[in-house]
Write a structure and sequence with these properties.
Blueprint: E1 2-9, H1 12-24, E2 30-32, E3 49-50, E4 60-61, H2 62-75, E5 79-81, E6 87-89, E7 95-98, E8 103-111, E9 115-117, E10 135-136, H3 139-142, E11 152-156, H4 160-169, E12 175-179, H5 189-197, E13 201-204, E14 207-214, E15 218-225, E16 231-235, E17 238-241, E18 245-247, E19 277-279, H6 291-311
Parallel strand pairs: 1-2, 1-8, 2-5, 8-19, 10-17, 11-12, 11-17, 12-13
Antiparallel strand pairs: 3-4, 6-7, 7-8, 9-18, 14-15, 15-16
Length: about 325
Amino acid sequence: MEKIKLLIIGSGPAGYTAAIYAARANLNPVLFEGFYTGPAGGQLMTTTDVENYPGFPDGISGPELVERFRAQAIRFGTRIISEDIESVDLSSRPFIARGPTMQFEADAMIISTGATAKRLDIIGARDGEFWQKGVTACAVCDGAAPIFRNRPLFVVGGGDTAVEEALFLTKFGSRVFIVHRRDQLRASKIMQERAFKNPKVEILWDTVIVAVEGDNVVRSVILENVQTGQKSTREAGGLFFAIGHIPNTAFLKGQIELHPTGYIKVFKGTQTSVEGVFAAGDVQDHEYRQAVTAAGSGCMAALEVERWLAEKGLSS
């Protein structure tokens, strides 16, 4: 079993940024970028146009941005392994991480496995259909895209996230519909009041979306009233899932303290409940979930690892 200073589990803006900083600090990081459990590069790999990442005034595709992160990490000496980590042992140092074909002992570890947006299995909204062609799970990431401007937009959900995303989308859409299968929202009272008062927001109670239709992009949705079974078709420029995310922490098997929602708890920056194990990106961020904030936390984690290894006399 190979012994290393730093193992980074997960890629995307957080993992690759951590690798860039760690490699430049001569920590010789090894990064497992993932393979089966999610695309290497994270959610950006399913994002067509990224227009809010600093430094790209004309925008850049998600996969291209990820490839630039990756190439920069490799340039400074990061060793990248295209496998998933299947299990870890954090009970003692050095930590042990096992993949399908490789395993390592590591003095320190950064977890940046991200989170997966929850999606409903709706006809037309699946991969290979209209996913990322008008169907998305992040209004803040994608809402300003030209295909959504001055079009009726639909948000699925009933919590604070759904209302927040609907209000955000009123800046771009001609009208925003919150589709909720119940007769009342789960959102906080203050968020509900904001939705009720906004003239561009309409709530479709007791309703679900059963299909998405279009040509090269979304053009309409088929709605069904769960009480009456009546179906109707409405013009649509986009469909936004706002039903939460699932942090990718199952492989940890309870060895790190998590929030009730499954996100990793961090203390004093990016330190987890296990000394020497740090977390960056969406796996510990249930609020912002942006590429730029993930990259920032990846930088923080690498700097904190460097300091921690020095304090423990493990940096040389």
